[in-house]
């Protein structure tokens, strides 16, 4: 059995910088036609100069692969209209992090008061720049995303022309918000379609599945599966593939992030086939994103086939999800 995916897109990807960038970027550019590149470097990308230089390093790291890095800025509420008008030519979106909520987010937003954000949100609305949000409060870890729901509602109601993407949603509550606000969209990761908190901490602690937001309850996973597998047009695949060196994961003070880039398409094919909806993988990994971002990707055909694929124990020192196990689908060819 084979499946052709046209121009798969990863709408939430961490590529890092320097050595790590050179290690991991080719693993995405090999099989994806493009990706939204997260700006949470240290320091984060907040100037156009830094953004252009980072984009150049990303392009160098992928050599001749046909892959478009869709760049993002790290949100600050002092971005004004003139700056954003210039930025629009270089970016696909702006990513907002609450301060300290995850890796390299110390420079994030301190107050979610819409009056503090109004100037920038209005300029983004007018210029048609999507707002991507890491939606967690600093409350109890299992409730953080749900607590942030009222912030999403405030944003959506007060800025109806702003396209807001709830990144890496993990709860039924977030899924339900999609139906309530026209301008709310979401990305969903591979790992949150597979795991619950039990897989992270219910038995022996699995640091390679520890991420932010943390995986939630079975009913949350079911809600995510429902919208992803039905290729609801408001959801897109965003891996949130977040590489950390093995020693930063297998350690006291484990870094948050699941590394899925090199195995994502194979695992998604297996998941969609298991649920009898292989035909919905194309919209989930590409078409929905094109429609939401008004974007025509580089042409790339990925032929997947139902043939065992053994996931290695690591990709140059970075441990992937499903390490040392066999997936039912593999990549046959890319043209
Ligand atoms: O698990 C995560 N890792 N969640 C994030 O939001 C950031 C990411 C990272 O950059 O490591
Ligand atoms: Zn992320």
Task: Summarize the structure in short.
The chain has 335 residues and is α/β, with parallel strands linked by helices. The protein contains 12 helices and 13 strands.
Report on this structure.
The chain has helices spanning 18-29, 48-61, 81-87, 114-127, 144-158, 172-180, 191-194, 197-202, 218-229, 246-249, 264-274, 281-293; strands spanning 2-6, 9-13, 34-37, 68-74, 93-96, 131-133, 164-166, 184-188, 235-237, 301-305, 309-310, 326-327, 330-334. The strands form three sheets. An eight-stranded parallel β-sheet has the order 2-3-4-5-6-7-8-9. A three-stranded antiparallel β-sheet has the order 1-10-13, with helices on one face. It is of the alpha/beta class and 335 residues long. The longest helix is centred in the middle third of the chain and has 15 residues, at 144-158. The protein is built from twelve helices and 13 strands. Bound molecules: (4S)-2,6-dioxohexahydropyrimidine-4-carboxylic acid and zinc ion.
Question: Which descriptors apply to this entry?
Answer:
single chain; alpha/beta; binds (4S)-2,6-dioxohexahydropyrimidine-4-carboxylic acid; binds zinc ion
What layout of secondary structure does this protein have?
Elements: E1 2-6, E2 9-13, H1 18-29, E3 34-37, H2 48-61, E4 68-74, H3 81-87, E5 93-96, H4 114-127, E6 131-133, H5 144-158, E7 164-166, H6 172-180, E8 184-188, H7 191-194, H8 197-202, H9 218-229, E9 235-237, H10 246-249, H11 264-274, H12 281-293, E10 301-305, E11 309-310, E12 326-327, E13 330-334
Bound molecules: (4S)-2,6-dioxohexahydropyrimidine-4-carboxylic acid and zinc ion.
(4S)-2,6-dioxohexahydropyrimidine-4-carboxylic acid (DOR) binds next to loops.
